[in-house]
Specification:
This protein is of the alpha+beta class. It has one domain. Helices cover about 30% and strands about 20% of the residues. The chain is built from seven helices and eight strands, in the order H-H-H-E-E-H-H-E-H-E-H-E-E-E-E. A hairpin with a 2-residue loop joins strand 5 and strand 6. It is globular, with a radius of gyration of 17 Å.
Length: about 190
């Protein structure tokens, strides 16, 4: 379609996405009690948010069910997190990063969590973010999700992931090159 770039939605896609985001926002008020949809909508409809809408669409299309879970007052940004009950279906069976992918000799996955997040224009959640937003969950009661791994762990070949079991958050380690059909990654996008 002329005039629409690869990372820009059509007007119809934008309308459908905004309807989905608003419906999810309204049905999950416990995630954002002090935030009003009109404030988010104004930001999403601004010219600066064209790429952000595309990223939110990517989160939606891969099963992330993005929703606002916070607001950074200092930066005046709303924080969209993947709020699907389980790790997003369209982002599973990925190793941690490109180095891990390249180190695999056999049975390589199609991509890595860090690479896919970058392609989508989002960030993989940090361990602190993962723990914090479980307060509006629970999330990953049957799956697990890679979380951004500190450099000192990654330099030793490891990566960390989390899940929610027995009423609490668990953070584990694994070789960064590992991948499982029940492990994906959760992202965050600042709008």
């Amino acid at each position: 379609m002329a005039g629409i770039s690869k990372k820009e939605l059509t007007p119809d896609q934008t309308d459908k996405l905004l309807q989905s985001l608003k419906a999810r926002f309204e049905s999950n008020r416990h995630r954002h009690k002090a935030i009003q949809w009109e404030d988010i909508e104004k930001k999403l409809n601004s010219a600066e948010s064209v790429q952000k809408l595309w990223s939110l669409h990517q989160m939606e299309e891969t099963g992330g069910e993005p929703d606002v879970v916070g607001y950074d007052k200092e930066k005046d940004e709303f924080l969209y997190f993947d709020c699907a009950p389980e790790s997003p279906q369209g982002r599973r069976s990925l190793c941690y990063d490109q180095n891990a992918l390249e180190s695999r000799k056999k049975f390589k996955p199609e991509s890595s969590a860090m690479e896919r997040a970058a392609e989508m224009g989002i960030e993989v959640v940090t361990e602190d973010q993962y723990r914090d937003y479980q307060n509006v969950g629970p999330f990953d009661t049957k799956t697990s999700s890679w979380v951004k791994t500190p450099n000192e762990i990654r330099e030793l070949g490891g990566a960390i992931f989390g899940d929610y079991r027995f009423g609490r958050v668990f953070i584990y380690h694994n070789g960064a090159e590992s991948y499982y059909k029940s492990r994906g990654f959760r992202g965050v996008l600042r709008v």
